[in-house]
Amino acid sequence: MKLSNLMAISPIDGRYFKETFFLKEIFSEYAFLKFKIKVEINWLIKLSTITEIKELPSFDLITIKNLNKIYKEFDKKDAYQIKEIEKKINHDTKAIEYFLKKKISKIKNLNFISEFIHFSCTSEDINNLSYALMLKKFIKMSLIPHWKKIISLLKKLSFLYKSVPMLSRTHGQPATPTTMGKEIANFIFRLSRQFKKIKKIEILGKINGTVGNYNANLIAYPEVDWVKISREFVTELGITWNPYTTQIEPHDYITELFNCISIFNLILIDFSKDIWGYISIGYFSQKKILKEIGSSIMPHKINPINFENAEGNLGLSNAMINFIGQKLPISRWQRDLSDSTVLRNLGVGLGYSVIAYFSIEKGIEKISINEKKITKDLNNHWEILTEAIQTVMRRFSIKNSYEKLKEEIKKNKINSENILNFIDNLSIPKKEKIRLKKLTPSNYIGLSVELTNRIL
User: Fold this and answer.
1) How far is residue 275's CA from residue 205's CA, in Å, rounded to a whole number?
2) In the chain, which end has fewer C-beta atoms inside a 10 angstrom radius, N or C?
3) d(Cα 101, Cα 44) in Å, to the nearest integer?
4) Contact present, 441 and 382 (Cβ < 8 Å)
């Protein structure tokens, strides 16, 4: 049977194929093999620069170009060859070594260097650097652009709606007014903190042998400064060098990275639920797309599916990346393989985040404010001004200020007329009465606009 997206078990490769297709170049088995090829070739080239290794002369530019070609021209045919070798020997990294030996044997005058492929390396030396390159590429190509776009879209909304007064709802009940722009600004601040954090997280890597002590390196070439070589090689890959490891790089940085992504996702879940709520009470409208159907039976419906989709996929992503982050730093003694299968699921956990980010972006671009509805809601709740009135009463030492207003609310349905009458009977300076009488639910918004402007 020919495979198709319809036959995929995971919705990442099925229903959401279009949103996640590009991730195949980062997280697929093919991509992993290609990253490993890159690390192996770069290590071989690095070894050729060490003057103490007389058996491996320094490569000229043509030789380096030919070696790099193996990585740059790596294709599916090459990947299948590696997998065929792996089937026979049951070891993925050794299969790459054998594949490279065969490839390099075809390059003129390089037959003699075959034993320097994978020289003094354990599999994890290659794997940890490959995963580091993988995550580095994902952060640069996908994560940062999505986070930037989401924050940018929210800034546009916040700017547009910074002066739109809105009834707050603390505990779901009518409360002190805010503006829609300020409420969105709250999310901008929270998301921006995580954005700053993620750019500071170091991607770590190591190449120091079977248990992190350069044992084989030193026995072969005791005169080489292997610590210096290790540091240079890792940093030349654009990765931060980790000098202290067992056989494996301990993956602490992945936990740090995933914790940051998880918090960003949690904030977006909070945002999605809020927007979903505002849509449900009519504060936001969604663009009608004529060909789209909201309900299979109710023609009038436009469901907030983008925010619902985002909420679900962000939750799925966090479930996976939180587990991965908690698992990876734990390894029995100098090495166990329980991290290996978990690491192969990096793309799955992050893939659900990417799907959610696309949904959030689409959802934000579909919504528009319904000021008429928001204003009507505000004008139905003049009782929210009792906070302002009793606070001014306290300033002028009127006893039981809170209790007096509470009693007023019990006696009368609070409206603009009742509020004005109550203010007239207060024992406060005339200018304060005038100031209070100018208050309405729509202008009792504190520093909402100024606070929004500050973040924008």
Assistant:
1) 41
2) N
3) 12
4) yes
Q: What are phi and psi of 169, to 5 degrees?
A: -140, 95
From the list 356, 325, 343, the residue with the least C-alpha distance to 257 is 325
Q: Closest Cα to residue 361, out of 154, 199, 218, 178? A: 154
Closest CA to 147 of 25, 238, 265: 265
Question: For the segment 333-375, what is each residue's pLDDT rounded down to a tens digit?
Answer: 999 999 999 999 999 999 999 999 999 999 999 999 999 999 9
Q: What is the pLDDT of residues 243-297, one digit of tens each?
A: 999 999 999 999 999 999 999 999 999 999 999 999 999 999 998 765 665 654 5
Place of tokens 């003129």: 108
The neighbour count for residue 144, using CB atoms within 10 Å, is 14
Structural domains of the chain in order of their starting residue, each with its CATH number: 5-119 (1.10.275.10), 124-165+178-370 (1.20.200.10), 382-440 (1.10.40.30)
Is residue 441 within 8 Å of 378, Cβ to Cβ? Answer: yes
H, E, C per residue of 37-55: HHHHHHHHHHHHCCCCCCC
- Clarify whether 171 is annotated catalytic: yes
pTM: 0.94
What is the maximum span of the chain, computed from C-alpha positions, in angstroms? 102
The DSSP annotation for 416-438 comes to HHHHHHHHHTS-S-HHHHHHHHT
Residues sharing a CB contact under 8 Å with residue 453, sequence separation 6 or more, in sequence order: 162
Please identify which of the residues 4, 171, 296, 427 carries the catalytic annotation.
171
User: Residue 251 — left, alpha, or beta (φ > 0 → left; ψ -120 to 50 → alpha)?
Assistant: left
Distances in whole angstroms, Cα of residue 421 to Cα of each of 69, 294, 388, 416: 85, 49, 15, 9
CB atoms within 10 A of CB 397: 8
Q: Which listed residue (10, 58, 105, 295) is catalytic?
A: 295
Q: How far apart are CA 125 and CA 226, in angstroms?
A: 14
Neighbours of 61 (CB within 10 A): 7
Contacts of 331 (CB under 8 A, 6+ apart): 246, 248, 250, 338, 339
Helices assigned H by DSSP within 281-345: 305-327, 338-343
Q: Point out which residues pair with 368 in neighbouring strands.
A: 285
- In this structure, what is the dihedral angle of CA atoms 266, 270, 272, 277, given to the nearest 10 degrees? 160
Continuous segment of H or E residues that includes residue 165: strand 165-170
